Structure prediction request, 132 residues.
Amino acid sequence: MVASEVKNLATQTAKATEEIAAQVQAIQQSTGRAAGEIGEIAQVIDQLSQISGAIAAAVTEQEAATSEISRAVNEAATGTTELRHNIETVSSTAQKSDMTAGTMSSAVDLLQQRFGQMKNRVEDFLSRVRAG
Prediction:
């Protein structure tokens, strides 16, 4: 009986060893698949990192473009303000010139009247001197 128990134990040991070997092999296969999946995850993370870098670069370029647009708009606003001021100056100068021209015209008319009066007086004087 001892021999049959030893044989029975040997058979059970062999079965347990086979089961353990099968489990070890299954674990090794699972580990291999996990390692492969981890490698794929690492590749996806690398791709995401590259995409994030590209997005960051695009955002930086967009910020630079926005700053340039803002600067150009400010310059245009300043130019518009200066242009408005220059137009107001030209308008004011034109109004003053118009008033000056009107004043000069009146002065010329007055001078012509006085010249006519003076001419008449000189002619009267000369007539009296000749007659006299």
